[in-house]
Specification:
414 residues, alpha/beta, Rossmann fold, Coagulation Factor XIII, Chain A, domain 1, six-stranded mixed β-sheet, five-stranded mixed β-sheet, 23% helix
Length: 414
Amino acid sequence: MSNPGVGTDPVIVVGGIHKAFRVPTRDGARIRERIRHPWRRPERDLQVLRGIDFSVERGEFFGVVGQNGSGKSTLLKLLAGVYRADAGRIQVAGRLAPFLELGAGFNPALTAYDNVVINGLAMGLTLRQVRDRYEQVIDFAGLAEFQELELRNYSSGMKVRLAFAVLTQVDADVMLLDEVLAVGDVEFQIKCEAELQRLRNLGTTIVLVTHSIQTVNAYCDRALLLHGGVINTIGEPIEVTNRLLELHLSENYRHAGEHREFATRVVNTLNDPPALLSGLWLGRPDGSRCARFAPGEPIVAHLEVEVKRDIPSLGVEVRVDTSRGYVLFAGGDDELQLPDGGARAGGRLKIRTVLDNPFSPGKYVVFSRLLQPGPSGPGEPATLVDATAFEISGEPGPGVLQIGHKVDFEIDEP
């Protein structure tokens, strides 16, 4: 989603950042080591980030994604000044407002009012500003009935709502957010989305760490993928999230003798299937690869299948979701009869599924799966094994589908 308010001057510049932590080694548990060095605890350096270089433009909504342990939260804490880099430089221009951890900076023995005052002052507001905006904070958090309670009596969701509500009142130039849309109830998440859109429209620079592919595609102007402590990909959100999907599949879901369903989480497991979906890519009818289509332009999903055992038929299903995870379409062929008596073990199948394109401009995700013969007939069991994203060019509208319609009327004369 392009943001017309993005400037051309960077407000965050990260150059050659390295960060390591000292962690104990297993040798520390050995009796011999304990006897020889009773006061020394053997440690090693755990390299978390290595040579990170990027910049964020003024007014940009910038996403940071990666698998667990890739260094996302460490990078955000370096930007916030919580950690100090071992090497390299970080420059941030303007007032910074971080939202890094659940309830960070809150005192459980104090009431909501006292915690709002302390956090507001810490983020650069004056005492008068905090007092003037307190009612707005409580209203946004929906905690009017609980504001006299000590925070020790708050649930984790209530603490998140209060912390984010304080953040919305800070006049920040740059906001650092760590998984803010992954917590709280549905009503609060809707509030967060609306607030992020408001801040985005005001030109606030936002850096968001998240595991949500849908959030990155829906909000971010650019994104960065961390993998193994280095930048794997940086650029258009669709390119970055597609690369993240590839890493998930290649490292976690393609194992000999076992193939696992991948959507946003592991859903189903099928041991030793007769065929595996080894690849999915999108293109035009002429065979060219493409991830961006014009409204109404046909979309061709290309499925590449590895045949493990002789099969006479195979089921195929393709699903399209919005960037926020709502299912728009799921269809295919439950039993695709293969020519020449079927496919032989060791062979490869290439399957094309042509999709109509009634989608409005915006970003979407395609999932594919194979439906393989089971004891109850074709279509059981199923393994969903690949996913990719695409974009419909143009300015996003209020709906996600372009449906033909006709307006008619009739007038009764008085």
